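As a warm-up, study this chain.
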Amino acid sequence: MSDRKTVDPIATWRELTEDQKEKIGTACIALVLGLLGTMQQMAPRQGFFAAEVEGLQLAVDALAEAAPTAFVNGAARLPDLGVLGVRACRECGCTDQCGCDVQCHWVADDLCSSCREAG
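Now compare it with the structure written out below.
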C-alpha cells in the first residue's frame, strides 16, 4: 500500500450523526443534480450551475466540520474507491473510467502502468 493516506468513505459516513448525514446528503443531491444539468446543458443554465457550485460548497463545509480527518491541512484526502467496489490504482487513484493518460493500463489488480513505470 502506498504511503499516501486515503480516507474510507464508508467508514467516514458511518461515523456521522444523522443530522450530519442529512446536511451532507442533501448538499450532495443538489451538487449531483446541478452537475448533471450543467453537463446536459439544461435550462436554466445558471440555476443548474448554481446548484452545482453551492451544493459543492455546502457539502465541503459540512464534511470539513463533521469529518475533519477527511482533510489534511485543509486539502481533501484521496478517497479509497476500492471500498465502494471501484477498481482503483493504489498509488494514484486512477480508475477504469478515469485513467492517468492514454497509455495507462492495469499491470496488477490495483496498480496502473503509469505508477509502475514511475516506481
